[in-house]
Amino acid sequence: MDLENFPTCETAKRMLGTVTSGYYDKSYVGKWLFQVMGLEMEDSRSKTEELISQAFPETATWGLRYHEEKYGLAVREDLVYEERRNLIYKARDSKFPMTPYRMELILSKITGREIYIDDSKAVNQFEVQISPGSTNYSIGSVIESLMAIKQSHVLFFTTENTVTMAYCGCTLQEAEVLNLEQRQV
Question: CB 3.0–4.6 Å: which of 12, 23, 46, 108 could bond 7 by disulfide?
Fold first, then answer.
């Protein structure tokens, strides 16, 4: 064994660099102790990172079932991860007090476009403005979601801003204007 190139674990090398030089770095047993501790720490770190990623529906994979149970949804392992996440988002986001900003976030997830909600035009009314974009969405799902999350006494209107190309043409012509008057003699 090449004692100079041991330990091989990066965490063990980092730990070995924190102790007094000249003692453990020259010891075969000392280097093995750091190697074993370093491997254990790297294993623990990777498992901890995996568990942390399951704590949020945005990054969860096998932990999606716990999020579905948390929000009272049926465990749908037959669906792909993104569809399951969208169902979780819908259940999670509809439980909080609804503000125009929260409605903008929810509708942005549904449409994939930027949404602006203007509630300053009239009392108990708001307008949903959908910005132009290339994503496809169903206006029916937007209206259905709005009906589920808005307050029951509030009316809404939706508008979609689109970008179109309009061509107009004109011709320039010089003309001389003559004023003719008819006079009687």
Answer: 12
